[in-house]
Amino acid sequence: MIYITGDTHADFTRLEEDKFPIQTEMTQNDYVIICGDFGGVWNYIVESMHEKQWLDWLDNKNFTTLFCRWKSWEFWKII
Predict the structure, then answer these.
(1) Full strand arrangement of the beta sheet holding 2-5
(2) Given this model, what pLDDT does residue 75 score?
């Protein structure tokens, strides 16, 4: 399965199980693609506690999270 969503602006609550219940049936071979402002990484030198919390949370989901490159300085931390 492939699911596509728009800007998250670092607010990943739309991917919580009660708002996105199909994820219980998903595996790492299923994808959620975030198009637009991912917003999950801002400090390219040191990972903040907030960033780490949400990135770990996404990493522990049943699905694989992908995102499209956007025009923002946070891109430099993830390359």
Answers:
(1) 2-5, 31-34, 64-67
(2) 53
The C-alpha atoms of residue 22 and residue 9 are separated, in whole angstroms, by 22
C-alpha span between 14 and 73 (Å, rounded): 24
Distance of alpha carbon 41 from alpha carbon 48, whole angstroms? 9
Neighbouring residues of 15: CB distance < 8 A, sequence distance ≥ 6: 5, 23, 32, 58, 61
Q: Dump pLDDT digits (tens) for 4-19.
A: 998 888 889 999 999 9
Cα 61 from Cα 27, distance rounded (Å): 9
Q: Where are the alpha helices (DSSP H) in 12-71?
A: 49-59
